[in-house]
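Notes continue from the previous slide.

Worked example: a multi-chain complex. Inputs as given:
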Amino acid sequence: MGSEFDCCSSEGVILGVDGGATSTVCVCMPLLPFSDHRHFPDPLPILARAVAGCSNYNSVGENAARETLEQVMAEALSKAGLNHSVVRAVCLGISGVNHPTDQEMFLNWIRHIFPGHVKIHVENDAVAALASGTMGKLHGCVLIAGTGCIAYGFRDDGREARAAGAGPVLGDWGSGYGIAAQGLTAIVRAHDGRGPETMLTNCVLETLHLSSPDEIIGWTYADSSWARIAALVPEVVSCAEAGDQIANDILNNAVQELGMSVKAVVQRLQLAGEDGNGSFPVVMVGGVLEANKIWDIGKEVINSILKTYPGASPIRPKVEPAIGAALFAWNSLMKEAKANGRR
Amino acid sequence: MGSEFDCCSSEGVILGVDGGATSTVCVCMPLLPFSDHRHFPDPLPILARAVAGCSNYNSVGENAARETLEQVMAEALSKAGLNHSVVRAVCLGISGVNHPTDQEMFLNWIRHIFPGHVKIHVENDAVAALASGTMGKLHGCVLIAGTGCIAYGFRDDGREARAAGAGPVLGDWGSGYGIAAQGLTAIVRAHDGRGPETMLTNCVLETLHLSSPDEIIGWTYADSSWARIAALVPEVVSCAEAGDQIANDILNNAVQELGMSVKAVVQRLQLAGEDGNGSFPVVMVGGVLEANKIWDIGKEVINSILKTYPGASPIRPKVEPAIGAALFAWNSLMKEAKANGRR
């Protein structure tokens, strides 16, 4: 927001949107000069930021998702004192967008909101997350581990691959939900005699204000929210740090699962080259990887990846995914400008 | 229904009810003479049988559960051409009854339906399942493995213990749901490069009329019914029989989990005596244990139990759980008559 960039808004702005299952964020960024991203100003100039609710259409339906997206973009522009006519490019990174048909659906709608010359990108929210670490370049692998988990890889040539992200029924054991569900299961098993005693019992019962492991079952099925279960990850981490073997086993298993997801993507896309030693970015996003405790899940996942791919370059993004989306749109404009310049 | 038992109905009848998550069965049985159960007539005389919907109050609510139970008992009596006045004892084995407060709730209600002298038992449906194998005696362990799984043990002295039965989130890996979910997970892992190829992919895609493993995710979350997932157990079994390693690993894991559940109950109740060599019945119930294919899960579970407790005596019940409930009520009447006779 420094004065040196005020001029840029007259050159046009870019909207970057990160649409998730809980909230949707839109940032309005002035069009930066088309120089190398290593010369980006720090901090990046952001003209406005707006927040709205869920825009995953699988969760709230198409109409509600569109309304939320339209509203959050209008609010960001309004906060910046601008209107739709100055927008040069938009990137929507939305969870739930997995197939070309999903992209088509959103593109057909958003085309009517902006003038025809505006460059529009509709992508999965993993694109925004990756770009938040690579400053807009769509190359490398992003590992997202919050309530859910997914590894998503992209190559410059347009190829992409994903691993995990199939939800709790289909074995996302490295997710926050997976870690916490294994913790709850360990308590039940210790209680009914199938498993060894664990510190998790007292720790979790205290947190949940329950008096007996029997009550864990009722608590678990009283509400189907995945995030509510995943909120117990800190209990598993603190028991592991206190030396509990079961909690350590659960975290080590999660590390293995998350590392395996990244490695599967890297292998399929040959991101590390044919010899496996090439360099590529691995962007790490989400509460499970950002815990920054003594038991550092993110660090252990990186170590696991480095053992197989020594050229992996871990990145913990300094900007939020909505800015990643804006930088991706900026990067695409820049590539186009360069290509036109060469013609 | 033989003429030799027609007389018995004038002596009174017993109602046995098996109330589950999908249906509720009530049988009306004449009061058999109080001799040893080894002298039971074969087949047992059943005057009438009625079927109604779900009576698990966690699923349908208290009022609906009571209405279903009242209706199914009235229908059984009506089919037998009898009225409530000839009932001597009732045993309701209902899923969802886990705590004394659940029992109280049903007892307070059913007291108003039958005259005060009628003996009434309200138990978990595991009691009906165990009694269907022990011909009414509440001693031993019952292992139920259908869509869900649970091991429930009872001693003559009234002590009881259970293991597993905590549902899919809390690690019931030996259940039909658990087996099938692991099968679906293996397909996703093979597809995204985290796991080895498996025959399950083609087998399950064909069964579900899907064209790609990507579609497994959408199929899985399109409907939250556990039974719909569990219906894929036969696919896992047939792939295991065809030599698929992943499918074999899943079934071996299920066998270990189910065996461990029984062993945990036996140990806590000391059903095999202090030296672990004593004899006790293990009643095996549910689709997962009754498959009777080349790969026989039930047989493998029994072998696993016998390795630890050589005195375990496996029983596959010849009568349905509702008859087990009736026999349990009969057994209680008989014990009471004997006790009165000794006074």
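Summary box: Residues 1-9 of chain B have pLDDT under 50 and may be disordered. Chain B has two domains: 3-123+318-342, 139-310.
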